[in-house]
């Protein structure tokens, strides 16, 4: 509670809500308000700004999973006539399409959407400010294009798709396009005096997919669980893992953060967090989840500037995760094991580098250096008897067993690297051969 009270006081926020979830349930929520005797709770709506982009990205990945588009498709294939049709859907998702960060004047967040009734008005005369695909440059109009893409492919509005494909299946009944009571009002706090000014709450129109939504701490924690584990009614765990994978280079000087497919990815304090920050006039928000620890943090405030909601959300998550580390799963023996697979376990050598091959409970294997630093990786079993790398240097690479004519194991092949049972063993399938004199002293 102290961290939330400090955030509200130092950030000079009319109100501040923080909450932490673990393994799908809210384990702590607290709030602070400038009104004595009255404070919001985890069911009070706040505007969440760019956290909306994550919802839009989920809708796009759903279209990909249904085979209705490919992420490498140019936008023009599905949404013709934009003038930036050469950019790909993946580039829009990762903010690497080269598009401008904002719309042409006036300030779109504080003006009527009727000033931008078409995509032409959203993009302006100079929509591209960087070479396509060359750098990460955050773009709100890019997510307007993605929202219009969803509408073009689905044949229904972004709002209708959002409600039926995400909000209803996940039970996010307090997340909506328009505010629903109880909700906070948006305020600007004077930078040099303790006085406030109400902020307008505009309907963003075409820009809605970039920042329209209102939500609560409880709903966002449920959404965080989905981002960590997936839900086959919306997106599979495999697709969520793809969204959480870095896909866009970080800007110079920001090496602790990058961007996936619609998700911000940040590192620090020995953990990786995925989620998003958000702001609109009158509101700031933060949502982060540590997938490995199963902990999520949310922070919401109703002030245009001052409260560091994204920072506080990460700190609240860390407080819980550090105080009560996640319990490891109980060790259990395998229910059955293939003797041929068991025979592959143990030490293997890539040249003189010693590795150990270990069986995993899911039928996969792990290859780990036995001493010192090295390229360790987990591998997922494929139907053809090979394994596919899941992480690290060998992500996506193929591990296979190479057998001799008599069926005995010759070696392991990993992306052309040869692993033998002995270091540079005589007669082994070592590229370049092994010196006939064998190992020797000085």
TrEMBL record:
Could you tell me which residue ranges the DUF7586 domain spans? 337-421
Q: Which UniProt keywords apply?
A: Hydrolase
ATP-binding recorded as keyword? no
Where would I find the Beta-lactamase-related domain in this sequence?
10-317
This protein's record includes keyword Oxidoreductase: no
One example of the protein's molecular function in GO is: hydrolase activity
Q: Which Pfam families does the record associate with it? A: Beta-lactamase (PF00144), DUF7586 (PF24491)
Q: Which residues cross the membrane?
A: none
> What is the official name of this protein in its record?
Serine hydrolase
């Amino acid at each position: 509670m102290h961290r939330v009270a400090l955030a509200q006081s130092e950030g000079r926020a009319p109100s501040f809500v923080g909450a932490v979830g673990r393994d799908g349930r809210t384990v702590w929520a607290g709030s602070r308000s400038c009104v004595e005797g009255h404070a919001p709770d985890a069911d009070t709506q706040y505007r969440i700004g760019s956290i909306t982009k994550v919802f839009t990205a989920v809708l796009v990945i759903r279209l990909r999973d249904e085979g209705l588009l490919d992420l490498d498709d140019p936008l023009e294939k599905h949404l013709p006539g934009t003038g930036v049709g050469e950019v790909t859907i993946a580039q829009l998702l990762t903010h690497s399409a080269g598009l401008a960060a904002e719309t042409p004047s006036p300030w779109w967040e504080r003006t009527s959407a009727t000033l931008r009734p078409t995509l032409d008005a959203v993009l302006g005369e100079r929509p591209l400010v960087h070479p396509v695909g060359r750098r990460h440059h955050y773009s709100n109009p890019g997510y307007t294009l993605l929202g219009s893409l969803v509408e073009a492919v689905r044949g229904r509005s972004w709002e209708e798709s959002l409600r039926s494909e995400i909000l209803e299946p996940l039970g996010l009944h307090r997340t909506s396009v328009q505010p629903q009571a109880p909700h906070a009002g948006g305020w600007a706090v004077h930078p040099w005096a303790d006085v406030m000014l109400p902020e307008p709450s505009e309907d963003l129109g075409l820009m809605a997919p970039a920042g329209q939504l209102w939500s609560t701490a409880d709903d966002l924690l449920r959404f965080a669980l989905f981002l960590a584990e997936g839900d086959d009614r919306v997106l599979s765990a495999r697709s969520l893992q793809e969204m959480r994978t870095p896909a866009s280079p970080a800007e110079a000087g920001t090496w602790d953060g990058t961007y996936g497919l619609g998700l911000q990815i940040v590192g620090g304090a020995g953990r990786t967090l995925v989620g998003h920050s958000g702001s609109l006039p009158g509101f700031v928000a933060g949502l982060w989840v540590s997938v490995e620890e199963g902990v999520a943090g949310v922070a919401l405030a109703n002030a245009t500037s001052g409260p560091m909601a994204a920072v506080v959300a990460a700190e609240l998550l860390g407080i819980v995760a550090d105080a009560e580390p996640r319990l490891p799963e109980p060790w259990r023996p395998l229910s059955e094991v293939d003797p041929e697979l068991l025979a592959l376990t143990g030490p293997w050598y890539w040249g003189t580098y010693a590795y150990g091959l270990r069986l995993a409970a899911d039928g996969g294997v792990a290859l780990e250096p036995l001493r010192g630093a090295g390229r360790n990786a987990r591998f997922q079993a494929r139907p053809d008897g090979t394994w596919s790398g899941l992480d690290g240097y060998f992500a996506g690479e193929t591990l296979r067993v190479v057998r001799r004519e008599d069926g005995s194991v010759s070696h392991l092949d990993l992306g052309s690297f040869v692993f033998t049972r002995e270091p540079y063993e005589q007669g082994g399938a070592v590229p370049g051969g092994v010196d006939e004199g064998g190992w020797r002293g000085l």
